[in-house]
Amino acid sequence: MRSNPAADARLQRAPKEVRVVFSEPVEARGSEIAVLDTSGARVDQGDTAADDANALRVSVRDIGEGGYVVAWAALSAVDGHTTRGSFVFAVGNAPLPALPDVGEASPPPRPLEVAGRALSFGGMVLLIGGPLFTLLVRRWPTMPEQRSEQLFLGLGAALLVVGAVALLLEQGGRAPPRLATLLTMRGLAGVVVLGAAAALSQRHMRVVALVAGEIAAISATLVSHAAATEAITQIVIDLVHVTSAAAWAGGVVAMLAITLPSARALPRGDLGRVVGRFSTFAIVTVVVLSLTGVVQALQRLLLVQDLWETPYGIAVLAKVALLLVALVLAAFNLLRWGRRLRAVRDPERARRWLARDVAGETVAIVLILVATGLLTALVPPAQAGGAAYQATRHAGGLRLELLLATASPGQNRYVLRVSDGLAPVTDALKVALRFTMIEHDMGENELVAEQRAPGEYVATGNVTAMFGTWRIQAIVRLSGRADIATTFEVPIGAPSGPGAVARVVQAPPYTLVVYVDPAQPVAGAPVTLNVVLVDAKGDPVAGKELRVTFTGPRSEAVTAKESSIGRYDAALPALESGRWTATIAIGAEAKGDYTFDVAR
Questions:
Q1: How far from the centroid of its chain's Cα atoms is residue 402's Cα?
Q2: How far apart are CA 220 and CA 167, in angstroms?
Q3: Which of 5, 223, 275, 590 has the fewest CB atoms within 10 Å distance of its CB?
């Protein structure tokens, strides 16, 4: 989300530490911040530690003037995923170094992780869907195929244990405590079912298996994308989605593995009635899983194009396609073979074809589990960043994503990610951002962005100087093509909170939006006080004479210059460290005070 020093910062004095703040809790064990000079040598102390739940810090040795790269890897305390990134800063008059390509911000999941997730989901399918099929569809207190049911539930328990162990091994001993606890709970649920298989009656065994399967589903939800949002409604929707999917898929597999092999021993027409009841059960569960799946997709995808332009979206499409295949086979079973079995017309032929179609459904379900294992290991587009503002547009066949570090007036970092499908655009001749304000005429400003990483173009400035809605036009120039442009409407909020650099200062009849640049002034370095003057109607006021008196370790007064409509800048070559108060006088009409600190 942010760092200190900030990305692309130019410092007059070398920092003693680097601090990075993230959008989710991070686990210090398994995370790292490395600070490197332009030769690639590390200049940090190697003591990466947690600063608070969402932040990491590392101490820096005594360094001199030059450019430095900060490369970080953060292990999520929620789901165990690792994300990576880097930024640069410069000390003194040194140029900013080139930002190295550190690879994917969220590296693709490793095969062991996908396998562990797929096996775990397979165990949930058998332990939840199998007992529900027997209790709600088969409806017999005891079943002649008791041995088959025991093997079925035992397999589900074994998949749960193996999946949990695989995910713990994939973490390589660095699993965050929360993740390790939930995976251990999942594995123990499977062990309990294996132990109950020999000790309990058939009916009690089903109840134990169902409870264990639901415990495993809860453990999966609590380390899911929904849990990362910390929104209770999303967590509940995810749990309902997992449970309904397991109920339907497990019922299909139970039909194939338990009921169909012993169908010849059933009374005439009984198999047809079972198919009819399961079809009703399946319709209900599929409707629930489809609705909850759509809700989750809308929450995690930014655009329709995300379905084929992001790895997460491609996994969603694969899962949906496989689900449709399974539903087509299910409809054929209901409308053709189920009807024939209920009417007792050529039951043996109908049973054979039903078994083949259910086997096809089962294959589709296995592939769905693999796709789900991959899907849950990928970062959704809507959850990929911790920016204060993040929006995506499509223009000229390109995907343009704009991110702002803060949503307050003042100095900001504007990042435009440009890609053509899945490929980042690295050969843009020019990328520019043009700023105008919707509510007021504050003129038009333009920033030219530099490519700081493949397909990532960055500009910094304090053009969004006033709260309100700003129209930011992104323009991308490519060789041999007309300029590609799209517009973002960005809300800049009134600054608030004790830590806000920009603040609203009341000086009746005027209101002032005031901030310093840089956001953290340093002793001996230049500092500029920015003031936006607003009247009682909220309109910027031009043509006023502003006099700013700085009082603190010493006193100094300067006249602010009007740089654009209603915007005034008071610049000083340097200030001493300590607390300063800037008294802003608007002619003889009004005064207001703004307090800030200058670091050593």
A1: 15
A2: 12
A3: 590
